Amino acid sequence: MSGYEVIETGRAVVKMWTKGVPVDDSARQQLTNVARLPFVHSHVAAMPDVHFGRGATVGSVIATKGAIIPAAVGVDIGCGMMAVRTSLTAEQLPDSLAKIRSIIERTVPHGGTGKKGGWKDEIPSRVSKRFEQTGLGEGLERIESKHPAIAGANSVVHLGSLGAGNHFIELCLDEAGKVWIMLHSGSRGVGNRIGSYFIQEARKSIEKKVLGQALPDRDLAYFIEGEDELFGDYLEAVMWAQDFARVNREVMMERILVAIRPLLPPFTTEKQAVNCHHNYVASERHFGADVWLTRKGAVSAREGQLGIIPGSMGAKSFIVRGRGNAESFHSCSHGAGRTMSRTAAKAKFTLQDHRDATEGVECRKDRGVLDETPKAYKNIDAVMAAQADLVDVVHTLKQVVCVKG
Predict the structure, then answer these.
(1) Would residue 346 count as lying in a domain?
(2) What residue numbers does the annotated binding site cover?
(3) pTM for this one?
(4) Is the pLDDT of residue 55 over 90?
(5) Distance spanning both ends of the chain, measured CA to CA
(6) What is annotated as the active site (predicted)?
(7) Known binding-site residue numbers for GMP
């Protein structure tokens, strides 16, 4: 018996790992819209955290032959997770965790989308050197020379910064009481600029074409490989942004480890850190074909591959090992998934609701994070149960400190 249900669309089917979790009708319609596109290969896979997004559904995996949909990748290109296990134990943490939260907030720029969310005054020399040594500076210059509209976005200014919304930094305890540091962020302002620019360019490109059928959603505009000149340019830019996002997480993690050491007993970290994208496109082979695989809110879960599935501010998170399920395109969910919009969450929940849901966690308890309150998300246990054939749980984490933008 399969772990998914099937939606017939008249063309490619949608396979949904959503047993026991809510899925709104708007998300189902988006999945159907994507599955009906002529270049979709085999089927569309929907993860249990699936919910309505821009054009393509968050929590969807889309295999395409000879085409890429920029809005399916989105504007938070390369957004993902990183986690490191330390030698520290729960007993070695101070009784009050407020100082740890405070020093992380001072060490890592957070909040805001402009310069206020990055390095306001002087960029640390190690950050600017990393930007150049990794080739990010040279790569961005090449992209901007071809597409001047992208120029001027905060790039190195945002390297090593968290952002706002659902991005976070956490100290967590696993089932053995070991301390982990986990964070969630992406390509920040420059990724947003690249994504937004190419989404608009894809729309313009589609408007010039004579299509066999009208697009069901203008945000599903795409570039055709070998036909659209911008296909290669977009691919170069999106791969650059994915590299930026990975380095961004590495820089943050390095700075956090240095910052918290004076407040804690001496500790080491495990050599193997998990660093995975969950908004990205990659060249992969599935069901007998070379495809462009877009994971929009989904994590690669090849057999034996480690990944991270976070819950909300007050829920458990999981370090997982992929089971290599071919039907899901070797993928799993990227988190719990929202049950309501940010506006709806702010209108429905009170500060007391939020305080109750985050009891025992050193984190913000103000109105500015009500849209991120745990009850705005699906039940993470139900999400994990729905994808039991996609991943095995390696570690279960519970946060004790959470820093939000």
Answers:
(1) no
(2) 76, 166-170, 184, 278-279, 310-313, 317, 334-337, 404
(3) 0.95
(4) no
(5) 43
(6) 334 (gmp-histidine intermediate)
(7) 166-170, 278-279, 310-313, 317, 334-337, 404
Burial status of residue 345 (CB atoms within 10 A of its CB: 0-12, 13-18, 19 or more):
buried
- Which of the residues 51, 330, 334, 354 is marked catalytic? 334
Residues 369-380 as b/e (b if ≥16 CB within 10 A, e otherwise) read: bbbbbbbbbbbb
CB 40 within 8 A of CB 63: yes
pLDDT value at residue 324? 98
Q: What is the CATH classification number for the domain harbouring 86?
A: 3.90.1860.10
Other C-beta atoms closer than 10 Å to the C-beta of 401 total: 21
Binding residues for Mn(2+): 76, 167, 184, 278
Closest CA to 237 of 271, 187, 277: 187
Number of domains comprising the chain? 1
Per the annotation, the verdict on 354 as an active-site residue is no
- Quick check: is 355 in a domain? no
Is residue 345, in this structure, part of any structural domain at all? no
pLDDT tens readout for residues 208-229: 775 545 788 889 999 999 999 9
The residues that bridge with 281 in the sheet, in sequence order, are 294
What length is written for the chain?
405
On whether the CB atoms of residues 239 and 191 are closer than 8 A, the answer is no
339-361 pLDDT, tens digit per residue, is: 888 999 999 999 999 999 999 99
Q: Is there a contact between 83 and 253 (Cβ–Cβ < 8 Å)?
A: no
**Token pair for 288:** 């007998």
What is the distance between the alpha carbons of residues 249 and 162, in angstroms, rounded to a whole number?
A: 8
Asked whether the beta carbons of 278 and 295 are under 8 A apart, the reply is yes
Write the pLDDT tens digit of every residue in 110-124. Answer: 987 667 789 988 899
277 beta partners: 80
d(C-alpha 249, C-alpha 78), whole Å: 10
Mean pLDDT to the nearest integer, 306-334: 96
* Residue 367 resides in a domain: no
Q: What's the domain range around 327?
A: 5-339+377-404
What average pLDDT is seen over the chain? 94
Residue 92 per-residue DSSP state: G
* Mean pLDDT, rounded, for 359-367: 92
